[in-house]
Amino acid sequence: MRTEGTVEAFRRAEKLVAQRRPLEALRTLGPVLDEAPDKPSVQLLAGRAYLFSAQFQRAELAFLRVIELDPSDHYARLVLGRTLQRQGRLDEAHTQVRLAATMYPDPAYQEVLGEIRAHIARLNDSG
């Protein structure tokens, strides 16, 4: 991010996402996305805002872009998995969250993985 105004806009957008005001965050983040579309932190923040505003396809694309730019980003894989889960794409979600949990063995990641596995098991039992 090149200008002070861009950094300031990014920080404002971060605060808005933290406050669960994703649409305002996306409006604030627009110029930042225009200026730094290949910056993983910008795509990750946009993806989170899209996810929180139920724009799942846009969130998916943003998280995939982060992973393309930085394949080792475990958090991007986790939230991509959550995004896929919200779309009912459980097998794909499981794959991404399993990778994230392998890369970063955090109990919270394991909890998400268990949740997805339980959901898949319920569907298999009822089907």
UniProtKB/TrEMBL annotation:
The record's listing under PROSITE patterns reads:
TPR
Q: Name one Pfam family in it.
A: TPR_16
InterPro entries for this protein: TPR-like_helical_dom_sf, TPR_rpt
Which UniProt keywords are given for this protein, alphabetically ordered? TPR repeat
Q: Where are the TPR repeats?
A: 40-73
Q: What is this protein called?
A: Uncharacterized protein
